[in-house]
Amino acid sequence: MNPGDRVRVDRADRTYEGVLLPSSTDDHLVVKLEGGYNVGVDRAEAEIETLEEDVYEIDGTDATGPEDDDASDEGADSEIEFDDDLPTISLLSTGGTIASTVDYRTGAVTAQFDAEDVLRAVPDLAGRANYRGRVVANILSENMEPPLWQDLARAVYEEIEAGADGVVVMHGTDTMQYSASALSFMLETPVPIVFTGSQRSADRPSSDNVMNAVSAVEAAKSDCAEVLVCMHASESDDVCALHRGTRVRKNHTSRRDAFETVGAEPLGTVDYDTEEIEFRRDYQQRGEADLELREDLADDVELLKFTPGMDPEFLDVVEGSEGLIIEGTGLGHVHTDLIPRIEELIENGTTTVMTSQCLEGRVCDRVYDTGRDLLEAGVVEAGDTLPGTAKVKLMWALEHSDDVEEAMGTSLAGEIQERSVPWE
């Protein structure tokens, strides 16, 4: 019995069948089940039967999961040839689950695909476009940092300048909304820039990587020259939603339809079966804007969520920062005891912007006394800008705007809606 064998494991009243993985200890077995999950079993208490030997090759470095193996073989055998009648789409990889596979040394999911691997793993992409692959980073998105936003923006700029008809960015989902916001402000684009990712890795039968990648490529061929996020619109494999990069938020940890446009319906949808794209609201059309990159960002901007009982001394941590986004309650409030300390920060040069921790609606600090006191202290209102988007925007505005207060109250990339109303 060796790693890579298909085995049946009986323990007490439970039976498990799957692929035997290497284990970090001799006392336990690790089995990858058909559903994509791993189970650990005490070896001494288990009866083990080998059903089939060497089902999957495990060499400690390049092993892939059952579904990955089939997809990789199919993709590797198919040639992607240049076709003058097809648009050119640049695939930029930053890592994340959509570019991940199972490491059979540990049974964990690791980011180890580059952009060319994505093409091999998703053979459905073939014939839809001519592709150029480029690796910008190979990280899990929780490790994304502003300098990498700048690297990514430069890479997108270079790809468009070199003639790409659209760009698809493979990105981890945890911080995708921040990166999409950053590129929305840093780039004027004449072609679509589409972020996509995967909530579930390719070794799982419920993986969303193929549908999201295919739909993202179709969106990158569309007439909408904006920064978009393309992810499942529901738990079913039927439609992907196209969210504007500055209005999207990840609202669930693991569902395939985790991403939502806050305060409005998605900008559009992609029907996976028919490949039909439908846009429901106005958007910047292909070719309307001239390509421009403005990548500089202030690197000392913080986002702070106010909670009841917060000590004013907590604000000492942002002393000397260039900017501060406060995620206030309701219409944009904090405890009155914090206002004098906030005023000191502003007087010392920290641009302070108020957003709301409510999922929908806009700040309005003219209704209650606390809000009026905040405005008098110099706090800037950000309308219904999402707090994460507001942080990215302030980082950008501090470097590119002569009037930061005006910029934060003006919709520059669709981040502020004209009015907050139910959208059903």
Overview of the molecule:
With 424 residues, the chain is an alpha/beta fold. The protein has 9 helices and 23 strands. The chain has helices spanning 66-77, 115-121, 146-161, 176-186, 209-220, 339-347, 369-377, 387-400, 404-408, and strands at residues 6-11, 14-21, 28-33, 38-42, 47-52, 88-93, 100-103, 108-111, 130-135, 166-170, 187-188, 193-196, 227-232, 239-244, 248-250, 259-261, 268-271, 277-279, 292-293, 301-305, 323-328, 351-356, 380-381. The strands form 6 sheets. The protein has an 8-stranded mixed sheet with strand order 9-6-10-12-13-14-17-18, sandwiched between helices. Strands 4-3-2-1-5 form a 5-stranded antiparallel sheet, with no helix packed on it. Strands 20-21-22-23 form a 4-stranded parallel sheet, sandwiched between helices. It is globular.
Helical content stands at 10-25%
Q: What is the CA-CA span between the terminal residues?
A: 57 Å
Please summarize the sheet with the most strands. Answer: 8 strands, mixed
What is the number of strand segments? 23
Subunit structure: Heterodimer of GatD and GatE.
Domain GatD N-terminal: 1-51
GO molecular function: asparaginase activity; ATP binding; glutaminyl-tRNA synthase (glutamine-hydrolyzing) activity
Protein name: Glutamyl-tRNA(Gln) amidotransferase subunit D
